[in-house]
Amino acid sequence: MKKLFLMALTASISLGIVISNAQADTWLIIHAGTLLADARKPAKAKQTIVVKNDKIVAVREGYLTKFDLAQNVKIIDLKDQFVMAGMIDSHTHVTGEMEPHSREKSVTTTESEYALIGTVYARRILNAGFTTIRNVGGPREAVFALRNSIRKGQILGPRIVAGGLTLSPLGGHGDANGFRPDVFGKPHSGICNGADDCRRAVRDQIKYGADMIKYVATGGVLSKIATGTGQQFTDAEQAAIVQSAHAMGRKVAAHAHGKGGIDAALRAGVDSIEHGSFLDKGSIKLFKKTGAYLVPTLLAGATVVDIAVNKPGFFIPEVAAKAKQVGPVMAKALYLAYKSGVKIAFGTDSGVSRHGINGRELVLMVKAGMSAKDVLISATVSAADLLDLTRSIGTLEKGKSADIIAASGNPLKDISTLLKPDFVMVRGVIAVE
Ligand SMILES: [Zn+2]
Fold first, then answer.
1. How far is the CA of 226 from the centre of ligand 1 (A)?
2. Contact 158, 150 (CB under 8 A)
3. 51 with 31: CB under 8 angstroms?
4. What does the pLDDT look like over 35-73, one tens digit per residue?
5. Are residues 422 and 341 both part of a single domain?
6. Is residue 300 domain-resident?
7. Do 66 and 121 have their domain in common?
8. At 191, which helix (H) or strand (E)?
9. Distance from Cα 286 to the centre of ligand 1, integer Å
10. How far apart, in whole angstroms, are the C-alpha atoms of residue 366 and residue 374?
11. pLDDT of the residue at 80
12. Same domain for 214 and 199?
């Protein structure tokens, strides 16, 4: 009986393979009125992109119409559109959105519920033209499940580079706070104190599936505790986090507002500083020495200031005070860093803002003083570099993933044309048309 069952199973597996082998390749021919294949170079008129399954196989001058292909070819007419690589958001929290009672929700929502709502938010972000996100901290089982299902093609969403639980000192910005003692339970696996314990916390995230490590170098605006926005982990703890993550091939992002924490994180060798609100000329020297990226998250700053000013009672007084203090300086910090030649990677902190309005960060970056061209570089080529994905995303060329978006108008002249893309494709699958 047992043997028979095994044979049947083997037969069904091999049949599955035969079917998938028999599936014809999908060919798509995209006629692009204007094509920005690489944001560092000029756009070109009248170009054709040839897509086979999930990859770009050629980019050609003019509108190709004749093909020597046995399979059916679908032509996508984007002759009146500006076509470019799918954008990359280097700082998201895809499984949640800030709401007045998010603290209470954090103890009543299960990992499964986070994963399910994450599928909805992920799709909103994709539809906004972001074909890749780096999720820097969140309920890890939910985030990893979402990442894996999207990767397998079970759910349509942006490619996810996933951090695990955010590393934080006990009582710090990444720890739970504001509950009655018996509600807290055991601190999560990212909470660590002392260099050895922080190495344990890094390895724990990697063991369970983290692609990168996020830690809090300083206090944060939204933690329900009046601990300010200064340095939280010690220099020795930060060095231990970065060294143990790099030793296992993982990049490290440090959440940092206060200058002391920004500089300590840069000295420790982090790959990116998130927010960077109170950076100064000394910090910039360190950025340039280490080659770290700044991920500005202006949209988060704008969102929390708007709420603190216009929605009384949404935040507790400690949070409202921090929001009013930090929000307004973030654009100035970006401008100072940008003018000094610090590398900038696009990131919104989506989840603080609503998912799907990620493009508003583009507008804020231009308002802060960046050229539209440099903003587009930050959201494609530079973010791909930060995520270690240059081989597959960031530009449209042979061999890269078919992550392609299009909008009417020219974003190099008016970046707001990207707020609502008319066409979005991820890995050869059309999400918006
Ligand atoms: Zn964040």
1. 18
2. yes
3. no
4. 999 999 999 999 999 999 999 999 999 998 876 665 678
5. no
6. yes
7. no
8. none
9. 22
10. 9
11. 98
12. yes
What is the Cα 301 distance to its own chain's centre? Answer: 17
Q: How far apart are CA 338 and CA 373, in angstroms?
A: 13
Number of Cβ within a 10 Å radius of residue 70: 9
Q: Which residues contact 275 (CB under 8 A, 6 or more apart)?
A: 255, 256, 257, 295, 296, 297, 300, 301, 326, 330, 349
> Is residue 179 located within the same domain as residue 222?
yes
Residue 12 lies in a domain: no
CATH of the domain at 51: 2.30.40.10
Q: How far is the CA of 348 from the centre of ligand 1 (A)?
A: 8
The average confidence (pLDDT) of the chain is 90
Q: How many domains does the chain have?
A: 2
Quickly count: other Cβ atoms within 10 Å of residue 25's Cβ. Answer: 10
Cβ–Cβ < 8 Å for 308, 315: yes
Using the mean position of ligand 1's atoms as its centre, give its distance from the Cα of residue 323 in Å: 14
Distance from the CA of 349 to the center of ligand 1, in angstroms? 5
Strand boundaries in 225-303, DSSP class E: 251-256, 272-275, 293-295
Task: Provide the total of helices (H) and of strands (E) in the chain, helices listed first.
Answer: 15, 15
Structure tokens at 401: 């993933």
pLDDT of residue 273 exceeding 60: yes
Provide the 8-state DSSP code for 373. H
Instruction: Give the pLDDT confidence score for residue 147 in this predicted structure.
Output: 98
pTM, whole model, 2 decimals?
Answer: 0.92
Whether residues 51 and 142 share a domain: the answer is: no
Q: Which residue has the tokens 């969140």?
A: 138
Q: For residue range 94-137, list pLDDT tens digits in order.
A: 999 988 777 778 788 999 999 999 999 999 999 999 999 999 99
- 374 CA distance to ligand 1 middle (Å): 23
DSSP result, 12-32: HHHHHHHHHHHSPPPEEEEEE
Q: Is residue 11 part of a domain?
A: no
Q: How far from the centroid of its chain's Cα atoms is residue 125's Cα?
A: 10
> How far is the centre of ligand 1, averaged over its atoms, from the C-alpha of 20 (Å)?
40
